[in-house]
Amino acid sequence: MSRPRSTDPSVALSIAVPQSLKTRLDQELSYQQSRSKWVCHAINEKLNQEFDVSSIPTGQLLGMLHYRNVIDTNLLTSLRMRVEEIEAAR
């Protein structure tokens, strides 16, 4: 009797990485460890990571809102001035 097929089969993925990065990875892994499993785990960790909005600087967030036409130039200028006031008061 054969074993059941995987519900999430593996597929080959060819990527290029700098030699120095491959060397670092190879130094991290033991001879018995799978490079593919390690990379899959790293990708899963990155994709499942919660996005931390607080890590984006306020000025950059304001720029993003302006770029997306959520705020106009006048409001952008006013908000930047207010942010500078708040940061100066700290």
Low-confidence stretches: none
Helical amount: 55-70%
Total helices: the number is 4
- What percentage of the residues does DSSP assign to strands (E)? under 5%
Mean pLDDT: 92
Evaluate the radius of gyration: 23 Å
How far apart lie the N and C ends? 71 Å
Largest sheet: none
Q: What is the ordering of alpha helices and beta strands? A: HHHH
Shape: elongated
- Structural class from helices and strands? mainly alpha
| Overall strand count | 0
Could you explain the architecture of this structure?
This protein is an all-alpha fold. Helix content is 56%, strand content 0%. It is built from four helices and no strands. Helix 3 runs antiparallel to helix 4.
Name the features:
90 residues
Short recap of the structure:
By secondary structure, the protein is an all-alpha fold.
Question: How would the blueprint of this fold be written?
Answer:
Layout: H1 19-28, H2 35-47, H3 58-67, H4 73-89
